[in-house]
Design brief:
Shape of chain A: globular
Number of strands of chain B: 11
Largest sheet of chain A: 7 strands, mixed
Oligomer: heterodimer
Radius of gyration of chain A: 13 Å
Distance between the termini of chain A: 37 Å
Number of helices of chain A: 0
């Protein structure tokens, strides 16, 4: 149980395009989903926290207009990287906390984004 | 700024060796503590939680010292499959999940 999926697993795009990444909790409902970014040899950095039906809370330094988050249901959150640039190339990982185990996060397999 | 500090390594050890990793955290109000394992190009996976009394799971032993804000992980009888990056992770808030990750310590186990 407690499986989180992400789609796509990797994406290559041209500079200036927008990329949408989906995060789904497959066998549980998640009140809260988290989006992280990890650059090579760096730790996971929390970008934003999203709660179903409400606006996401962004960490300091993360542009909310560039990284659009939609948490439309208890099993789906999406992250859209708008007008992507090469410096946005990174490993994006989502996680989800079950309704009955809010202190736990289950991680998705990550999405590797390369912007040319 | 809340931080979790780890020695990045790499730690190069032969199979069968015992290896220990340490971690310090800056927020004295931190509530819960974990070790995660991350393989290359993969997501982190929970290895074990860390309790004040210390806890053991097979070859892995974790210790927490709240007074010193220090966490450790001991791996006995290292296997080749233990090669990975080990992330020290701290949860800041009780009843909710707000994880702060260390940069990780890389372990390489050789035959």
């Amino acid at each position: 149980g407690a499986v989180v999926s992400q789609h796509p697993s990797w994406v290559i795009c041209k500079s200036g395009t927008s990329v949408k990444i989906e995060c789904r909790s497959l066998d549980f409902q998640a009140t809260t989903m988290f989006w992280y970014r990890q650059f090579p040899k760096q730790s996971l950095m929390l970008m934003a926290t999203s709660n179903e039906g409400s606006k996401a809370t962004y960490e300091q330094g993360v542009e909310k207009d560039k990284f659009l988050i939609n948490h439309a249901s208890l099993t789906l959150s999406t992250l859209t990287v708008t007008s992507a640039h090469p410096e946005d190339s990174s490993f994006y990982i989502c996680s989800a906390s079950p309704l009955d185990r809010k202190e736990t996060q289950y991680f998705g397999p990550g999405t590797r984004l390369l912007v040319l | 700024r809340k931080e979790v500090e780890q020695d990045p390594g790499p730690f190069n050890v032969p199979e069968g060796a015992t290896v220990a990793f340490n971690c310090t955290y800056s927020n004295s109000a931190s509530q819960s503590f974990f070790w995660y394992r991350q393989d290359c190009r993969k997501e982190p996976k929970l290895l074990m939680s860390v309790y004040s009394s210390g806890n053991e799971d097979g070859r892995f032993t974790a210790q927490l010292n709240r007074a010193s804000q220090y966490i450790s992980l001991l791996i006995r009888d290292s296997k080749l499959s233990d090669s990975a990056t080990y992330l020290c992770v701290v949860n800041e808030v009780s009843g909710y999940s707000t994880l702060t990750f260390g940069k990780g310590t890389m372990l390489l186990v050789s035959p």
